[in-house]
Amino acid sequence: MEETPPIITTHALTRDFKKTRAVDSLDLAIQPGELFGLVGPDGAGKTTTLRLLAGLLDITSGSATVAGYDLAQQAEAIKSKIGYMAQQFSLYGELSVVENLSFFSDLYDVPRAELRERTERLLTFANLTEFKDRWAAHLSGGMQKKLALACTLIHEPEILLLDEPTTGVDPVSRREFWDILTELYLGGTTIVVSTPYMDEADRCSKVGLMYAGRMVVCAEPQQIRAQIEGDLIELQPDDWQTAHALIETLPGVLEVQTYGDLLHVFVDSADKRLPEIEAALKKQSIVHRGARRATARMEEAFISLIKRMEEE
Amino acid sequence: MSLRHLWAIIRKEIHHIMRDRATFILVLLTPIAMLFLMAYALTVDIEHVPIAILDFDRSTTSRAFVQRITEGKDLDLYALVDTLEKVEALLLRGEIKAALVIAPTFEQDLVALRGMSLQIVIDGTEPESGGFAVEHIGGRAEEFLSEALASYIQTLDVSLDSLQPIDLRVRTLYNPSLKPRVDLIPGLISMVLGFPALSVALTLAHEREHGTLEQVMATPVGRAELLLGKMIPYVIVGLINVIVIPAVARLTFRIPFNGSFPLFFLLSAVFLFALLSMGMILGVFIRTQPAALALSFLVIFFPGFFLTGIFFPIASMPEIMRLESLGLPGTHYAIITRGLFLTGVGLDVLWPYSVMLMGLGIAFTMVGALFFKKKLG
Amino acid sequence: MLKWTSCVRRIWSLSIKEFIHLINDWWMPAFMLFGGVIELLLVGWATSRPITNLPLMVLDRDQSAASRTVVTALENTGTFALKALAPDMETIQDALERGQINAAVIIPPDFDNEVASPIGRPTLAILLNGAESIPATAALRAIEGVASDMGEGVILERLGLEPDDFAGFAPSLRVWFNEALSEALYTTPAELGLMLEFTTLLFAALSFSRERELGTLEQLLVMPFSSMEIIVGKSIPVILVGFFDFVLMLSMVHVAFGVPVRGSLPLLLILALGYLLVELGKGMVISVMSRTQHQAFLVVMMVGMMDFMFTGYAAPVESMPQIVQQVANVIPAYHWLTILRGVLLKGVGLEVLWPNVLALAILGLVIGTFSLRYVRRALN
C-alpha cells in the first residue's frame, strides 16, 4: 500500500480569510481507495479544506495535488475527476429529481448511451425512484442529501468530497447513507467525508482530526482510540458537579469528562482505581450508579486530544 | 465551448423562469406595461390650461381680444381679475398656470402701430403649461394684430400679408404632426427592454444567495457557458416583448412601422445580446440581489433614459456624456428603431449601429467571463 | 409601564438587527443614497442644458447678402451647428434619411429680391427630421425666431417706421417662481419627489420579501415578537434611511442646481416624513404579497410607473381626461409633488397647501390602516 502514490496530497496548505486563518499549514496524504473522515468541531476548517480540494477556493499559500493535477494551476481539470457535495442544500429546488440528475449529467459530460442506465441505478441506490418527478424543494431533508449524493456520482468520479453529508438528517437515513458510502468504498472510490459525528469517524478507514485549521492527528480509528491514556471508568453520580471535583483530586486519575449525566474517568489502572473512587464517593455520601469499566470511543479520544490542544 | 453544457444551463434557467408563475408573468408583462404607461404619460396633448386675464384697458378692442384668446379648448378662462395681487394668489395656489395682463394703453398702442402692450405671466414651475400658454396667446395675438392692421396696410403701397413677412414652408418628414409620441415610442422600446437586463443581473446574485452556485462551480462547466446560458433565456423573453410591443404600439398609439420586420427582429436580438451582457457583468460583480437591483438602476436604467438620445439630443450633450452614450447599447438601438419605425431605412443605413451593438455585446460578454471566477469568496 | 419598556426594547433589538443587515450588505443602502444623488445630478445636468449643436444643413440657392444674413443668423441662435452648406437636395435628403441632421433650410434663388422689393414675398423652405421630435421642435422654434427677427426688419422698412416707435409684436413675458426658466428647477423637484417615493417603496417592499425568499422569515416569526413589533422594527431603518436620503438629495439639488427653499423648511421636512410613512405602508403590503425579491421589485416598478403618470412630471394633469384627474386625487405622489413644488419654488405654506396635506393625511390613514391589518394578518 505504501508504493502507490497518494491520490490527494497537500503540503503546508493554507487559506486565510479576512481576519482568520481557516486552514493552517495542512499536510495530507490520502491513498486511493481510502474512506477518509475529516472530523472536528465547528470552525475547525473542514469545509474550507474540502472546498480547497474541490478547486472552489484559491490557495493562500502551500500546495496540493488531486488526482495528479496541481490545485493551483489546474483546478478546472480536477473538476471532472471529483464529485463534490456542498454542506448546504445546493441543488435547484424547482427542478425535479430526474431533472437535477440530468442537469449534472450534462455538465459532467456523461456519455448519453449510459445516462439512462446510470440514472435508474442511482435512483434505486438512493431510494428515490418513486419520487423521481418530485421537485427537489419538496423532498425531505434526508432525501435531498441523497439526491445531492446521486448528483455527485452520476459521472462515476474517482474521488468524492462530501461536506457533512449527514448533518440534519434523521438517524435511519443517516445509516442508509453510510451504507451507500461503504458500498462505494468497497467499489474502490476514494472518499473524503467531513462529519461532526464521532461515531461516523469509526466507520472510516482513516480519520483526520482538525482543530483551529490544523491537523491534530491523522491515523486509523483504532490507533486514535489507543492514544487515549489509561483505562476508562464510567459512572453516574447524582451530584455530578461535586463528584467531578472530588474525583479529579484522587490519585491515579488522569482526566475526568462529563458525558450527559455520566462521568468518564480516565485512570492509570481501572482495577486499582475503581474501588478507590467508589470509596471516596461513599465517604462524601455521594450516591452513584453503574460504576464500571468501559471502552474508550472516538468521542472520548477526540475530547481528550482537543483538551490537550487547548492547554498548549 | 461545449454546446451540451450551454444547453443544460439554458434548459435549467428556462425551467427556473417558467416555474415561478407570478414572476414569469411579471417579467413578461412589465416591459409592455411600462411602455404603455410611459407613452401615455409623456404624450398627453396639452389643453384646458387654466388662465386668468387682467384687463386694465377695458376697451372694445381689448374685450374682442379676450374673446379671441379664450376661444376653443386650449385655454380655459379661469377668472377675470382686476389686480395683480389676485393673479399672484391664483398662481401660488396653482389654480392658474398663466395669466394675460392687458396694459391700459392696449387699444391706443395698437391703433398707433406701437405694437401690442401685453404681458404674459407664467408659472415657471410648469413650463409645459406655461410655454403652451405663451405660444397660444402669442399666436392668437399675432392673428389679431394682423387683422387690426389689415385695413391700414391696404392704404399703403406695400404688400404685407401678415406680421410674418418671411413665409416659412415647413415640411416635417417621418412624423408630420411632430407629435412626440410617435418618435418617443420606438425609443421607449429601447428603455423597457432594460427589464430583462435587470433580471439577468439578478439571476447570478440569486444563485449566490441561495447557494446553488457552489454545486455548479464544482463541475467542469465553462465560465462563458454559464454566463451565456443564463443570459439566453432572457434574450428570448426580450424577443417575445419585441414581437408584442410594435403590435401594441400600432394599435393603441398608431405608430407607423415603415421598415422590415425580420430586420427589426434580428437587430433587436443583437441589441438584447448587448444590453443583457451588460446586465450580466453586473451580476458577476454583485453578491446580493438588492445590490444588483440598485446597480442595475444606476448603470442600465438611468443612462438608458438620459444618455441614449431618446429624450435629450446627443448633439446637445457635453463631450464626456456623448462618449458615454456611445458605450450604451440603447443609444444605437434607439437610432435603429427610429430608422425602422419612422424613417423606413434598411441595413444599408443601419449597419454601423448594428456592428456597434454586436461589438458591445461581445466586449461585455468577454469582460464578464474574464472577471467571473468559478470560485467562492 | 413595564410592558412598554420591554416592547420598546424588543423593537429596538429588531431594528439593530436590520441595521446590521444593512451594513453587511452595504451596497444596497449605499446605492440608494448615492444612486439617487447621482441620478439627480444626471437629470439636472442633462435637462438644464439648452438644446444646442443640432446639425443643420443649408442649401443656399440665392447666394446673396440676404441669404448669407439668414445663414449667419441661424448660426448665431446657438441652437445649430452648421454641418454643411449643401450643394443639392439629394445631399440633404440623404442626410435626413440617415438621421445625420435635424433640420435643413433651403433658401430659394430669389430670396434677396423678394426681401428688397416692397411687394415681395420672401419664403424659406424648411425640412425637419420628425424622427426626433424634441430637437425638431427646438429647431423649428429657432428658425421661426430668425424669420421673425428678419421679418420685423422688413416690416419696419415697408411701413416706414422707426424702430423705436415700434414696441414689437411679441407680448412681453414674465416668468414667476422660476425666473431663469431653468429646466433644472422644474425637473429636479419632481425627480426629488419621485426618488423619495421610489427608494422608500423599494426598501419597504424588500423588507419581508427578502426574508421570505431566503427562508429567514420563519425564524423571525417564531421569536417572541408580536407582529406589531416586527412591523415597527422593520419600518424604522426604512424611515431613517429614506428620510436621510431625502435630506441629502434636497441639499444636493440646492447646492448643485440652486433649487431654492422658498417656503418653510421644517414644514417640508415634516410633510416629507408624513409622505414617507404613506409609501412605507404601500411598500409593506407589497413585501408580504411577494414571494421573492424579484417579484417585489417588479411590482414596485409598476406602481411607481403609474404614480409617475399622475405626478404631472411628464404632462400636466389638467390636460388629462376627467376620470384620470379624479384618480390623481387618490394618488399620494400627486399631492406630495404639489406640496414639494409649492414649498420649494413658490414659497407657500399650509394656507395654500392644506387641501393637499389633508388629502395626504386621509390617504395615509386609509393606506396605513389597511396595510397594517393586511401585514399583521399575513404574518400571523
What would your notes on this structure say?
- The complex is a heterotrimer of chains A (312), B (377) and C (380).
- Chain A folds into 2 domains: 8-225, 3-Layer(aba) Sandwich (Rossmann fold); 229-295, Alpha-Beta Plaits.
- In chain A, 37% of the residues lie in helices and 28% in strands.
- Chain A has helices at 46-53, 75-79, 97-107, 112-125, 141-153, 171-186, 198-201, 221-227, 240-249, 270-283, 298-311; strands at residues 8-16, 21-30, 35-39, 61-66, 69-70, 82-85, 159-163, 190-195, 206-211, 214-219, 231-237, 253-259, 262-267, 288-294.
- In chain A, strands 6-7-8-3-9-10 form a 6-stranded mixed beta sheet, sandwiched between helices. In chain A, strands 2-1-4-5 form a 4-stranded antiparallel beta sheet. Chain A has a 4-stranded antiparallel beta sheet with strand order 12-13-11-14, with helices on both faces.
- The mean pLDDT of chain A is 88.
- In chain B, strand 1 (49-55), helix 3 (60-69) and strand 2 (75-81) form a beta-alpha-beta unit.
- Chain B has 377 residues and is α/β, with parallel strands linked by helices.
- In chain B, strands 2-1-3-4 form a 4-stranded mixed beta sheet, with helices on both faces.
- The radius of gyration of chain B is 28 Å and the shape is elongated.
- Chain B has 2 domains: 3-42 and 179-371, no CATH class; 49-155, abc type-2 transporter like domain (abc type-2 transporter like fold), CATH 3.40.1710.10.
- In chain C, helix 3 links the parallel strand 1 and strand 2 (80-85).
- The two termini of chain C are 26 Å apart.
- Chain C has 14 helices and 5 strands.
- Chains B and C meet through helix 2, helix 4, strand 4, helix 6 and strand 5 of B and helix 2, strand 4, helix 6, strand 5 and helix 7 of C.
- Strand 5 (167-173) of chain B pairs parallel with strand 4 (123-129) of chain C, so a sheet runs across the interface.
